[in-house]
Design a protein that fits this description.
2 domains; alpha+beta; 39% helix; single chain; Aminopeptidase
Length: 311
C-alpha cells in the first residue's frame, strides 16, 4: 500500500479542496506552504479509496533515515474518524515508526486513545503559529504598540517619498535579488535555516502566479527595501508567508507589516486574523513576534507512533 507521488505545482487542483475542507488555520494547511518547503522536506501525497471515500494523505521527511511525518488523513466529506485514521496510517507505515503532526489537542487525544501503548503525544512551542487581530496590526493603537508606532513614524518621516505597491510578475527578479542581498547580509551561508528559507522563497516567487500568492513591496529611490508575500488561508484568516526588510531603514518592517494587513483587510473584508506562522525556536524571532501581542496561538500537537524504546 504505497501509492505516493511527489507534491508538484500541478497537484494543487487535487490537494487544495482537501486542505480547505479541513478548515484549519495552521500554515501547514496552505498548499503554497507545502509547495514552498517540499524541496526541503521531500513532501509527497496519496489519494486513495477507503470505506467508499477518497482520502488524501500527505507526508514528508528530511532524509531517508528520518521517520515519515504525516498530516492527519483528509476527506472532502468531513473529519476522518480516529480509528479509521490509525488503520490507514498503520497500513501505510508498515509498522515502521512515524508521526502525525499539526494536530489539535482533541485529535491528538483521540489518536492516543486508539493505541495507548504505542503512541506518545508531544507539543512543541516552536511550531505554534502566531495569530493576531487584524485590526491591532492595522491600527497599532494603545500603549502596548507605542514602540511600533515610534519605528513606523520614523520611517514615514524619514522616507516621505517611499512607494508601496503590489508585487507584479515583472517585479519578481528584483524581489529575488533583494531577498538574496538580505540573505547575504544576514549570513545565510553560515545558517542552514536561513539558507533553506531562501530556497523556499525562490520556489514561491518562481510559481507566484500559479500559487495565487499576493505581495507588497516598498521602494525608496526605485530600490526595493522591503517586501512581503501572503494569501487568504481561510475566510477570516490572512497568512503571511514571508516578510523581509533591510534593517538600515528603520521602521521598514513595521511599515510593510501594517501596509500588508491593511491591503488584506481592504481586499477581503471578512479577514479578522493574521497568521504570521511560527518562530521555529529562534529566540530573536520569538521576541519580535511576541512584541506584536498575538491574540492566540495555533497550538500544534504531534502523535509519535511505534517509537523505539528508550534504553
Amino acid at each position: 500500500m504505497d501509492s505516493f507521488k511527489p507534491l508538484t505545482l500541478i497537484d494543487q487542483g487535487i490537494i487544495k479542496p482537501y486542505l480547505a475542507k479541513a478548515g484549519k488555520a495552521a500554515s501547514e494547511y496552505s498548499f503554497a506552504t507545502l509547495f514552498m518547503w517540499s524541496g526541503i522536506y521531500h513532501t509527497d501525497f496519496s489519494v486513495f479509496s477507503s470505506l467508499g471515500d477518497e482520502l488524501l494523505l500527505i507526508r514528508s521527511h528530511r532524509n531517508l533515515a528520518e521517520p515519515f511525518h504525516y498530516l492527519y488523513p483528509m476527506s472532502l466529506h468531513g473529519p476522518v474518524a480516529a480509528g479509521t485514521a490509525v488503520e490507514i496510517l498503520s497500513a501505510f507505515s508498515k509498522d515502521a515508526p512515524f508521526s502525525v503532526g499539526v494536530l489539535s489537542a482533541e485529535e491528538a487525544g483521540q489518536l492516543a486513545a486508539r493505541e495507548p501503548a504505542h503512541v506518545e503525544v508531544q507539543s512543541f512551542r516552536d511550531t505554534f503559529d502566531y495569530i493576531y487581530n487584524a485590526s491591532d496590526l492595522a491600527l497599532l493603537t494603545g500603549k502596548k504598540f507605542q514602540a511600533k508606532r515610534n519605528h513606523l513614524n520614523s520611517f514615514l518621516n524619514e522616507y516621505r517619498e517611499f512607494e508601496a505597491r503590489q508585487i507584479r510578475l515583472e517585479d519578481i527578479p528584483a524581489c529575488l535579488a533583494m531577498n538574496d542581498e538580505w540573505c547575504r547580509l544576514m549570513g545565510c551561508n553560515q545558517d542552514v535555516g536561513l539558507e533553506q528559507e531562501t530556497c523556499a522563497v525562490h520556489r514561491a516567487f518562481n510559481s507566484f502566479g500559479e500559487l495565487g500568492l499576493e505581495g507588497l513591496m516598498i521602494l525608496i529611490d526605485g530600490k526595493i527595501v522591503a517586501y512581503t508575500l501572503g494569501e487568504l488561508l481561510t475566510k477570516n484568516t490572512w497568512l503571511v508567508h514571508v516578510e523581509k526588510a533591510f534593517q538600515e531603514f528603520r521602521g521598514a518592517y513595521q511599515a510593510i507589516n501594517q501596509l500588508f494587513v491593511r491591503y488584506a483587510m481592504e481586499k477581503y473584508p471578512h479577514v479578522e486574523y493574521i497568521n504570521r506562522e511560527d518562530d521555529s525556536g529562534d529566540m530573536g524571532l520569538r521576541i519580535a513576534k511576541m512584541s506584536y501581542h498575538p491574540a492566540f496561538f495555533v497550538e500544534k500537537y504531534t502523535a509519535l507512533f511505534n517509537q523505539p524504546a528508550t534504553p
